[in-house]
Structure formats: structure tokens, C-alpha cells
What does this fold into?
Amino acid sequence: MPSMTKAQRDAFLREARIATLVTLNEDGSPNALPLWYDWDGERLRMFSMSGTGKLRRLARDPRACVSVADPVGAHEAWVTVEGTVEMKQEGGRDLALRLAERYYAPERAERTIRTWSRLEDWVLLELTPTRIRTYLTDMP
It folds into this structure.
């Protein structure tokens, strides 16, 4: 199976894509949801408001997996990052505001940033990888 180089992986993860975060329910079953993320070459960062289900699941069991893939019709490529998530009280809002500019068109980003800037209780989620798997098709 053709894998990405580290440089290809990092470039892929730095583009604006929707990721799927998988956390574990109390009974051990998976719980998947789409979200925005940021990759710095070592850790994958996400954000959440306090009191969400994903935070309750991660507080109980910090193991998680994030999957990022190109859409159907594109050159087939994907990355999965498995590891543990650390929840931090600082940095969540800053990340959310920065990502709004990446994921939304300028006008919508501006409205979102105005609204989100007033909100409190953001949480930064940092996924430290224990395993990263990649795929990049060698066919055009």
C-alpha cells in the first residue's frame, strides 16, 4: 500500500479538510463526529466548548483517532492519527477563531469570529500520536 512521505503527510494535514474524530462511549463503542483541526507536524489540535459529549468521553478515556480523507473523485489520499488527547483550558478559543478564517469564506468568518469571541469556556484538545497511517494512491 503506497504511503505518504512525512512531508506529503504534513502538507496534506495542513490543508483545510474536515476530520472525523472517533472517541469511545462508556460501553467501548466508537462515537464519530466531523470537526475542524490544526496540525503542527507533531500534534493534532481541535477545540470544543465545555460540557460536550466528546469532552465527557475523553475525560473518561483519552484514547482517540482522527481520520482525514480527500473527497470522492479526488486523488485518493487519507491520514489517520491514533493516540491520546489532552484537554487544556487555554488556547481553545484562539484555535477556533484562527480556524474560522481557514474554513469559512471571509464574510462568514468575520461574523463567526465576532460571535465566538464573546463566548467563554473553550477547551483545546491536543492529540499526541501513537500511530499515524497514511495512503496516497499512485494512480492519477
Observations:
- DSSP finds four helices and seven strands in the chain.
